Amino acid sequence: MTEALNKIRQPLKISNKPLTVLMSFLVLVFGTGLGIFAKWLDNLEIDSDIWWHRIIEKLDLGILFSEMAIWLLIALAIAVFSFNPIKAAINVFLFFAGMCISYHLYTIIFAGFDPSDYMMKWYLLTAVSPVLGAVCWYAKSGKVVSIVICALIIYVMAVYCFSIGRFYFTFRSWVNTVIFAAAVAVLYRTPKQISIAFVSGIALAFINPLSRYLCI
């Protein structure tokens, strides 16, 4: 099994294990910080007279971090650029765990309510994130299996970034378009690989009637 998987994408050899532990710790810190930042944005009352409030409003940061697309993009980048699928699984899990726990605790402490019902779907995503992270790691290769995985990722990103389905397509916002383009860039390996995956993923988003049920 290991040999077959290594033929899809060859893991990098880890010579400095303390460095990989440090990187995983930094991923956890990063996720924790983003969780706090996202909830802080939720609670922030925008005042257009304050210059940095205007920047937040202009960039739609409050909306950005309340949607799934940005979190999927970050997790995808973490997974794809990890040393191997095991590290991808660990790092993606740590990212989502840090984000969810810090968001949950910040809400309880500073917003005065417990969003347990809302957070359950995020905790469910966190629970399955190691498997998804490991699978995504194999997307960055030129093999057929990798292209299939890549196409499925593009399909999911298209569903979250655009209003798309049978016979219709609408841009939701320029930020979501940038997120989608960034996801494609992360997955890029060769022109042929990304072209096949892109066309397949977008086609699947158009024809699949279950697309709307992916949204959280």
UniProtKB/TrEMBL annotation:
Organism this protein belongs to: Ruminococcus flavefaciens
Keywords: Membrane, Transmembrane, Transmembrane helix
Top-level taxonomic group: Bacteria
Protein name per the record: Uncharacterized protein
Chain ranges passing through the membrane: 21-41, 61-81, 88-110, 122-139, 144-165, 171-188, 195-214
